[in-house]
Amino acid sequence: AQAPLALSDLCLAQVCSSLDALCSVRADGSMSLIWAPLFPQEMADQLLLKMAEKGILNDTSIGIFQNCKELRLRRASIRGCPLSAEAFHTTICPHRLLELDASRVSGGLTGADVVSGLSSSPECRSGLQRLSLSGLQLDWESLEEEGVARVGFSSLQGLRALNLSNTDTSDAVLEDICNLPHLETLDISCTPVSQLTALTGCRNTLRALVAHRLRQLDMPPASLLFVFSHLNALRHLDFSDDHFAEDDGDGRDGDEVVRQLLEGSPQLLPSLVSLDLSGRKRVSEDAIRAFVESRKSLIFMGLLATGVSACDAVSSQKNLKVTGEANEDQVCEALGRYGERECFVREALVHLYNLTTDAGQPQPDMLKLVVSGMRSHATSLHVHLVATACVFNLTTQDLAEAMPVRLLSSTVTQLLHAMKTFPRHQQVRGHAPYLAATLVINWLSSHEDPTLQRMAVAVISILVAKVKTPLAYCALVCCRENSAAAVSPLLAIVQQKAMVGVVDSTLKFALSALWNLTDEMPAAARNFIQCQGLELYEEVLEVSYYNEPSIQQKVLGLLNNISEVEELQSDLMEEDLLEHILSLLKDPQLEVGVRYFAGGILAQIASRPEVWMLDEELRGAVLQQLHESITTWTQPEREMVSYRSFHPFCPLLQTRQPPGVQLWAVWAIHLVCSQNTSHYCSMLEKEGLTELLKALASHPDTHGDVRGLSDGILRLVEQHQSLPGAFKNQTPNS
């Protein structure tokens, strides 16, 4: 069962969404709460974090924390937020901070700005215990250029944990850091540090050293082991490497250090209980076996991408946690520990995909790890390609139905983000809409909450419109053993709304989704009919919404899709239905959109006399009214319709067709080519319709109205062809 959100979370979310209404603006442009009660201290920290997570924390909004009496920060996170040095100094530094996470802050704030600002506060100098500047430029020189006295990390005498990964930390900075009297945890991963000798300065306090991918480390093995031999208090050592990176050297010095550490005496790093060697390519099973057997207190080993995580010496230790690829536990451990490291997330996801190909049980914890990896590396194409495949494995068939709704929501959100981030990558564009739509459809089948229902059908409507490739589209509607599962819950919503005659966004989104699902997809159209959708749509069209053009247009659009499928045209051969559609075509009071789709249905049905099963007089009336009505239409200014291809028009453009059928087809093609010339003229050329139009325009029996529009389309094509090549193959972003 899924626990409800905490009341405090709901309240904080409401404050964030209402911040503009709750605040006034100071003269400097920053925000100030109009009325601020005395917040519980932890709640102030949580509000700052919530604002950062929601992406609304910036120089303006952070101003509410200038009120240090009511909003007292102790554990502050401004991670990834766009903040200037001025806003940081004015707002954050006056607080009596114990912890600060300023990782990957944008907006010009540097590590030197942070240290300088914190050092200006006596409370922070002595009280700050944890500081993360991961991903920032330290840029000490900028302070010197501004005439600010340089201060170092050693001025923050209370520091116990410092994260400087992915910064420009130098050997000189490391020497300064190692003067801290209480330093217990240090992360210098992915920095240009070349010498670690300074670490001996904190040998009595340092308990955890993270030194992942030190590519500029320039110490012979003996010297590095000498440093390690002095770190008697060290319990965790991360000396892992990025196995994807192109080596500047062969990495043999680092590997030799690892070999000697594994095979050496337990008296080297005697307190060690955790060792991470992931990404080290030259680790042997014998060395791992020797190390594990000599360290009985060991609780963790990092062995991902080493090739030795399946070593029997490791698997036999029941209390030993391992990152690796030998089984699901090892892979999940890797995803949980290495969330910030793209190289290891990629590696773990590849193995997770292989391990979950035949997943039989819902595994929400595993899906949560995958989504977290996608979120942490939102711009990594490599991560998203593998992650979307893992999402498929973990949510296929009935697995998604047992997942918590909030987890499915975050999964869909991340898939939508992937579509936005990688709009031109075919595989992501195929995977992400299909997976997101499948998750929402599966969830919609078993939930009836009106609010969530409205959001779900909106997401489906948007997603199915974005699935462009036939393979992904087929997968979408055949996502389960019974492909009607994609259509049935949407029809149920339409029926529910039609019973009371309500017109709302949920109904409109459901109708749009069904319209898109059946577009050039015979399987989906067949499922629609099998689920009694045709009977429902007749009632919607003739009774429930007979005077609602916005609903009529969506209903007729879907019926138009069915009429394009030859083997389903007989299902539309109902006299009452066709007479009603004919009345819509004839009605001059209706907007062109409704009459256009009514005409499309009738043109498709009337184009095949061999399947016409009703009175011939009715067919004659249809053909006559098509011609008479279309000649009165005015082309709308806004886009009324879009097409995936012009294939359904080919039968209608044959020279043997009646003028009314031909006229509807050329009017439709002329409409879209006029509104989006580049895209649709390219489509005409690619699909060979220009030849059909030329034959139609030159045939002696072609009606003048048809010939005139055909010539107009061909002129648009010629104009398009005359444009420079750089403009010829543009397609819309949608």
TrEMBL record:
Domain named Protein zer-1 homolog-like C-terminal: residues: 373-718
SUPFAM superfamilies, A to Z: ARM repeat (SSF48371), RNI-like (SSF52047)
InterPro entries: ARM-like (IPR011989), ARM-type_fold (IPR016024), LRR_dom_sf (IPR032675), ZER1-like_C (IPR055142), Zyg-11_UBL_adapter (IPR051341)
Homology family: Belongs to the zyg-11 family.
Name under which the protein is recorded: Protein zyg-11 homolog
Keyword tRNA processing: no
Keywords: Ubl conjugation pathway
